[in-house]
Structures are given as C-alpha cells and as structure tokens.
Model the fold of this input.
Amino acid sequence: MSFVNMRRKLLLGNWKMNKLVSEAKEFAIASRPLAEKAKANNIDLGVSPTYLSLAAVKENASKDMIVAAQNVHFNDHGAFTGEISIPMLLELGITWCLIGHSERRAYDNETDEKCNLKIKALIANKMIPVYCVGETLDEFEAGKTKEVVSRQVKVGLKDLTKEDVKDLVVAYEPVWSIGTGKNASTEIAEDVCGYIRSVLKEMFGEMSEEIRILYGGSVKPENIKAYLSCPDIDGALVGGASLKQDSYEGLLTNIL
Ligand code: PGA
Done:
C-alpha cells in the first residue's frame, strides 16, 4: 500500500526578520479566509513570524493557521541572554518551530549537533520541528549535495525513534536558491527530496513514508504547482513570496 496520498500538503511562509507586530497582525486577520480555504482542501497552511509577532499572529489568525517559531533554545530556562525557550512558546500556544534554517547555520553557528538538541527538546514537548537542510553553492558545484544532506539528516535526527519522527517535517532548501530567484529545477528538487526520504527510510523504516518533505528556495505562485506535483515533495517553505497577501494567496490558490 502506498502512503503517498496520506501525506497532507503543507504550505509554510517563513517571514524571517520582516514585518512589524502591527503588520503581522493585519496579515493574520486578512488570512483568515485563506486558512479556511486551505482546510477545506486538506492543505495545512501556516506562517513563521518573528518571536515578537508570534502572540499577535496566534491570537488573530484562524485557529486552523499553523504558527511556527523560527528558532528556539534547547534548554527550558537559564542564563542564555537573548534566547527563547520551549515553555515560552508553549505558553502562547505555539507548537511548531523551524530548526536549522540555512541563514541560522550561516550567521548564528547553528550546527547539525545543535539542531539535534533542539529537535529532541521539541519532540520531548510534543512540538513539531520543521528541520531545514540543504547544500551551499560550492557544495552543489562540487557534486556534494547528497553527502551534505545525508549528514545533516543523520546528525540532526540522531537518537530519535520511529514514533518520535511521526509528525516531523523536513525542508530541503538548497542555499543557492534561497532569495536568489534561482530556484532548483523540479528534477533536482525531486531527486534530492527522494534521496532524503531514502535516508529517512534507513533510519526509521516505513515511518519515512509519513514524514513530510518540503522544498524551499525561490518558490513563487508561478512555480509552486510543479514542485508539489513531484511524488516526494509534500509542500513548500516560502520566504519572499509569503510576505505579501496577494502572492501568499496565489501560492495557495495555485495548489488547490
Ligand atoms: P525564499 O526563502 O522563498 O525567499 O527563497 C525560502 C526560505 O528561506 O525559507
């Protein structure tokens, strides 16, 4: 029996360091009908605002809208100036979190080992990590894509059980395609996402068929459908095109 059709599509906007709280709130309110539309079509729809906007988005969006943090610390509390903990997110009703986005890997020394600590802490708290992996341009050009994503997946998800990864989401985002307009071809994206699923299969057996794998990197309303038509791509993680209401709506409308 194939599990392919059992994986619900997931469209997640990553707002990065954009939007004032007031703007995020306005977007959340304006997106209520979209969240209803997504639900009616069996699609999970969400956004990942800055920490400061999480409460406003959670309070003002449709209850069906997924609201994800962009990062979290792996300790519950303590002397970690500038950090935010899992209990703080849970207090706001936030149960999703991006981990290991390439910008955090590049600018904030987010290693695979650190991602692993964060993912384990999230899962221990019944939260859903969206674990981002992907190669740099140099690695891509050197033909090292699979070696890199395999290491990121194996180290990032080390010590987890099949049961632990049931709700996990993995996002494949080639660094050279993020914010550059140079999106990976659907062939490359499907090849790497299929490979990631094979690595997940080695680690977690048949549970790999339930794990959703997203593509991210210059996804736009015009190209999203092609990605989501690939058998191993279950959704998209979208930066730039998720910031404006009309293109966010276009992303959803084009995959209905
Ligand atoms: P982009 O960003 O859609 O602007 O390329 C994707 C991401 O960083 O998640």
Residues 7-253 form a domain with the TIM Barrel fold (CATH 3.20.20.70). The longest strand covers residues 9-14. The chain has a mean pLDDT of 96. Residues 14, 173, 178-179, 216-219, 237-241 surround 2-phosphoglycolic acid (CB under 6 Å).
